Amino acid sequence: MQAGKLKHRIEIQKQERTPDGGGGWALAWVPVATVWAHVEGLSGREYLQAMAVASTVTSRVFIRYRTDIKPAYRIVHGADELNIRAVLATNDKTYLTLMCDTGPT
After folding, report:
1. pLDDT computed for residue 97 by the predictor
2. Letter string b/e over residues 50-70, b meaning 16 or more CB atoms within 10 A of that residue's CB
3. pLDDT at 58
4. pLDDT at residue 70, rounded to an integer
5. Which pTM was predicted?
6. Euclidean distance between CA atoms 22 and 91, whole angstroms
7. What number of H helices and E strands is found in the chain?
8. Contact in structure between 61 and 53 (CB atoms under 8 Å)
9. Range 3-8, long-range pairs (CB < 8 A, 24+ positions)
């Protein structure tokens, strides 16, 4: 992948426990990094779930190599929230391929 193809600005987020002000904890998405990426839609489907039509989109996101990205994280790209399902490094560790979907976390 050429660096010039990394033309989408994305934010990578992770879920953390944060104090809720009442002595308990709440889960919140907090930023890990904002990076340049190439976001590519692969497939989409609709299905029936709980008597309602639901949909999911599978995407592939390319970013420069990092060691702090995990499959439990998500990507925010514009109005889209993509759940990272797999993190794949190139052999020379120059780029990561993040396999993502828009389904439930």
Report:
1. 95
2. eeeeeeeebbbbbbeeeeebe
3. 84
4. 95
5. 0.79
6. 48
7. 0, 6
8. no
9. 3/64, 5/38, 5/62, 6/36, 6/37, 6/38, 6/62, 6/63, 6/64, 7/36, 7/38, 8/36, 8/37, 8/38, 8/39, 8/77
DSSP 76: E
The two structure tokens encoding residue 48: 């029936």
Give the single-character DSSP code of 104. Answer: -
Distance separating alpha carbons of residues 13 and 76, to the nearest angstrom = 8
- Looking at residue 5, its pLDDT comes to 87
Q: Residue 55: what are its φ and ψ, rounded to 5°?
A: -140, 160
Q: What's 93's DSSP letter? A: S
Contact between 5 and 38 (Cβ < 8 Å): yes
Q: What is the pLDDT of residues 12-33, one digit of tens each?
A: 999 999 888 888 889 999 999 9
pLDDT tens for 53-92 read: 656 778 899 999 999 999 999 999 998 899 999 999 999 9
Residue 82: how many CB atoms within 10 A of its CB? 24
